[in-house]
Design goal:
With 335 residues, the protein is α/β, with parallel strands linked by helices. It has eleven helices and twelve strands. The chain is 40% helix and 21% strand. Bound molecules: nicotinamide-adenine-dinucleotide. The site of nicotinamide-adenine-dinucleotide has 21 residues, from loops.
């Protein structure tokens, strides 16, 4: 088999350590990828004076598939979020955030299996109409939803449900108040639902969905929603399975896909060998599924699940007392 080239952005803070862990695990699982390492974020800013150097953008475009560590967006004016920039630039319209219970975590539930499909380019994060009045007393921003954008993401969610043999898609909205934007999203969701009679369709107002997710998470299967709601709901879902250390995310467009941890660069624990690498390992598993490599994906999932369930060399956030490298060794031994 010809080896496939993948762009790797180690990232900032805990990024390089947890990405290194994921790459070692991929290698042990027999995945013969060729990697092109490039920088973004604070690391790139320090080296090149740019948060997103052209070489990084070229690598992402040329290789199509990227595995990325978390990036630090410097605080202050003039810096737009790098993640938002990447999503816009490469048309990564679907943000796919699965959460699944692993036995042995500190989570409150043990039966969670939910995928949030978040629209990644429109809504409150479209960056349109950002204004603050001169005296600082008023601020405004625009939210824009398009029929094409809503159709594309809702179809993506139903196709995913079909492909993965899932039973139900719940459209989450706030159409009772945000009548124009959320209203259009809901209207489109209802139309598309009719094209998928084999999948159960449900709709729920976002505030009620938050409560139901906490009280009866087993009622949910695939969630599809707009950008801001998806951002918040997917973190809530991460909380159901033991926190951000267990939550991966895929940003998928027509020609490119970027797989990453949902959490940030965790500057409070950076360089201390304390980070749980599971989120990037799970992102690498998502990447393997995207590349239609189910066999190593399943083997890595089993090894990871066994380490967490047995508590063998787990990190502090999982109730253990070990570091990133010991945890990685425990997964590798099982492979
Ligand atoms: P964070 O997600 O980095 O950290 C929040 C808390 O979770 C911290 O206490 C941290 O120690 C802990 N944590 C996060 N990942 C962990 C892991 N793998 N193992 C163990 N504990 C973990 O959020 P923050 O502190 O608000 O943000 C730090 C920086 O990250 C900011 O610059 C922000 O812009 C950036 N950020 C980047 C991304 C991304 O690149 N996708 C996402 C969110 C935030």
């Amino acid at each position: 088999m010809m080896s496939r080239k993948i762009t790797v952005i180690p990232g900032d803070g805990i990024g390089p350590d947890i990405v290194k862990s994921a790459l070692a695990i991929l290698e042990k699982a027999g995945c013969e990828f060729e990697y092109e390492f490039v920088d973004a974020g604070l690391t790139a800013l320090e080296k090149t004076g740019e948060l997103l150097p052209q070489a990084t953008l070229d690598a992402i475009a040329n290789n199509g598939v990227t595995l990325k560590g978390p990036l630090t967006t410097p605080v202050g004016e003039g810096f737009t979020s790098i993640n938002v920039s990447l999503r816009k630039r490469f048309g990564l319209y679907a943000n796919l955030r699965p959460v699944k219970s692993f036995k042995g975590t500190q989570a409150r539930y043990d039966n969670i299996d939910i995928i949030t499909v978040r629209e990644n380019t429109e809504g409150m994060y479209s960056g349109l109409g950002q204004k603050v009045s001169e005296d600082g007393s008023e601020a405004e921003a625009m939210s824009k939803i398009t029929r094409a954008g809503a159709e594309r993401i809702v179809r993506f969610a139903y196709d995913l449900a079909r492909r993965e043999g899932r039973k139900k898609v719940t459209a989450v909205h706030k159409a009772n108040i945000l009548k124009s934007t959320s209203g259009l999203f809901l209207k489109v969701a209802r139309e598309i639902a009719e094209e998928y009679p084999d999948i159960e369709s449900a709709e729920m107002i976002v505030d009620a969905a938050c409560m139901r997710l906490v009280m009866n998470p087993e009622d949910f299967d695939v969630l599809v929603t707009t950008n801001l709601f998806g951002d918040i709901l997917s973190d809530l879902c991460a909380g159901l399975v033991g926190g951000l250390g267990m939550a991966p995310g895929a940003n998928i467009g027509k020609d490119c896909a970027i797989f990453e941890a949902v959490h940030g660069s965790a500057p409070d624990i950076a360089g201390k060998n304390l980070a749980n690498p599971s989120s990037v390992i799970l992102a690498a598993i998502q990447m393997l599924e995207y590349l239609e490599m189910p066999e190593p994906a399943e083997r890595i999932t089993r090894a990871l699940a066994d380490v967490i369930e047995s508590g063998d060399r787990t990190t502090r956030d999982l109730g253990g007392s070990h570091g990133t490298t010991d945890f990685t060794d425990a997964v590798i031994e099982r492979l």
